[in-house]
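Feature request, filed as a ticket because there's no other form

It would be nice if the structure record came with a short human-readable summary line next to the tokens. Right now we just get the raw output. Example of a typical job, pasted below so the devs can see what we mean:
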Amino acid sequence: MSVCGIQGHLLEVTVVGCNKLKDTEWISRQDPYVFLEYGSTKFRTRTCTDGGKNPTFQEKFVFNLIEGLREINVVVWNSNTLTLDDFIGNGKIQLQKVLSQGYDDSAWPIQTKTGRYAGEVRLILHYSNANKAAASYAPSAPPYVAPPVQRAPVHSSPSPPSAAPYPSPSTAYPAPPSYPSYPPSPAAYLSSSYPPPPPHPVAYPQSPYPPPAYPPPPYPPPPHASPFYPPPPGPYYPPPPPY
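Raw output as currently delivered:
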């Protein structure tokens, strides 16, 4: 819930104590104290001598709230007598919860300069104007009024039927053309105007099979009547004996 109009209002902060603080002493116990800063207002608790890692303070401080500033800076130190104080850790206290609810009791973690965990600080925050601010800035809504319900009379005549929402078309779609039945009659093809195809040409008469020249004549061929075959007998055949 957003909080408005906190300028100048009082916020009570009680520093209860610290838990699990980082130990900056090697031999003796450390002496912690808490430092609070809000705007230009600064407060410091007393030093808890030999408080060690779990010091207790129980100290209350009052801050004047500043519009737009919603956090308190907290720093924990170790008090030294002869040297500078040792830095233990720091953190930020968020005020959204206490400003909206009026009360916050929480332990807030602190960390070293390198971002490591250094313990926690327990604070109790109290804001007495939380309920007043919430009531003054709560939006007011008009009461809900149900709309009147219309009821029909008990004896009422039935309402006349309503007219057709869409007018009927003035013209109907034309009827589809008639097509001949399937398959068509063969007479449609016989009365064609195209000339009839020419008759097929008469094939040549085929010769008888097998041909008359088959089988071939015997071999060797018969002698032919020739004046040169065989040679006529002569007086020199057979040849005369040698001398």
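Something like this underneath would help us a lot:
The longest helix spans residues 130-136.
The helical segments are 96-101, 130-136, 187-190.
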